[in-house]
Specification:
Blueprint: H1 4-9, E1 22-28, E2 31-34, E3 39-42, E4 45-48, E5 58-64
Antiparallel strand pairs: 1-2, 1-5, 3-4
Length: 73
Amino acid sequence: MATRQHRLSEFNGGPPPPDLPLQLLCEDHNGTYVLPYPCQWHDTVWRNCVSNEPIEAAVVGWREKPLRTRSVT
């Protein structure tokens, strides 16, 4: 299992770019976890990009969501 500091080092802190799909690192009493859906910072609130619902988790970091690529053989 990754340590908290190692996990945090993989994510950005500070102000996120607005209206851009991002991957969020959240934290609760059990530890850190990555939300399984893209989110965006909009009007001072984190929101799920699909449902537009506000995120109620404690967000401790963000990063650009890695693009999934398919290899063609």
